[in-house]
């Protein structure tokens, strides 16, 4: 039936049983298409008509950021090894799956200091991230015998899901407030903090956008939101942001 054009409507009808959850609705379609692509590749189907199914879920969390107050509250209750997870997210902006893979030998000296050279898992691109003061302190506090920057309570390697779950657990213990619409802050939401750190480290908006996998406009938007909810550093951040925008427009 999947070699017939009408199968697309059949598949859309089937995945509507998850219409109450846009994420599950999209995931059902994604898994079905993966199976159909495999069948075509194996020669079990000549073709199928279920490519590029419409998605409902829109993952825009640009407005959700960890403020300095949030981080301070979190660090008051979280164990040191969990604090390191949050700090590495805030200082690098790497995805959770990449954070747990960062090793000490990924750092290299440059003419003006030090940088983290890391090949990202999702796009396979090499990211060059300047070592901020916070990242340097994290690196300095890493035991000599420890290869990766992040380990569990017993010194064992961390899985990305476990790292994310620990941030959620201790964020709730610290009673870090949810966003205005009730969404809870996650480890992935540290990327706005990281973008601001990189701006303060004199990276251009284009460089920040490249590192994060964002557009220049989106990177500027995220940094501006961070400045709005972080009044203790907003003046400096906004001044740097305006200067970065001006430089970008001149290119």
From TrEMBL:
Highest taxon of the lineage: Bacteria
Keywords noted in UniProt: DNA integration, DNA recombination
Ranges of residues in domain Tyr recombinase: 61-239
SUPFAM superfamilies per UniProt: DNA breaking-rejoining enzymes
InterPro entries: DNA_brk_join_enz, Integrase-like_cat_sf, Integrase_catalytic, Tyrosine_recombinase_XerCD
Alphabetized Pfam families for the sequence: Phage_integrase (PF00589)
Name of the protein: Tyrosine-type recombinase/integrase
Organism: Thioclava litoralis
